[in-house]
Specification:
Layout lengths: L2 E2 L1 H12 L4 H8 L3 H8 L7 H11 L3 H8 E2 L1
Helix pairs in contact: 2-3
Length: about 70
């Protein structure tokens, strides 16, 4: 069973980009800090649009992004 863990994705992306705060990451991704906070808190899921934005800024494959979100 997969376990959703978007906080790991956000933490990993902050680290990869050398960012120290989620508001900096939100700006880099072109999303609101509120939206990113809701994803971190699992109030809302990681949307396909957000996955594409992460893909664009990170250089990670879609599979890598999905593996950071889900744990088998």
């Amino acid at each position: 069973m997969a376990s959703n863990r978007p906080h790991k994705l956000i933490d990993s992306l902050n680290q990869k980009l050398g960012l120290t705060r989620d508001d900096m990451l939100a700006k880099r991704l072109g999303v609101t800090n509120s939206m990113l906070s809701k994803v971190r808190a699992q109030v809302t899921g990681v949307s396909p649009n957000l996955i594409l934005r992460i893909y664009d800024v990170s250089g990670w494959s879609i599979e890598e992004i999905r593996s950071l979100i889900n744990e088998s």
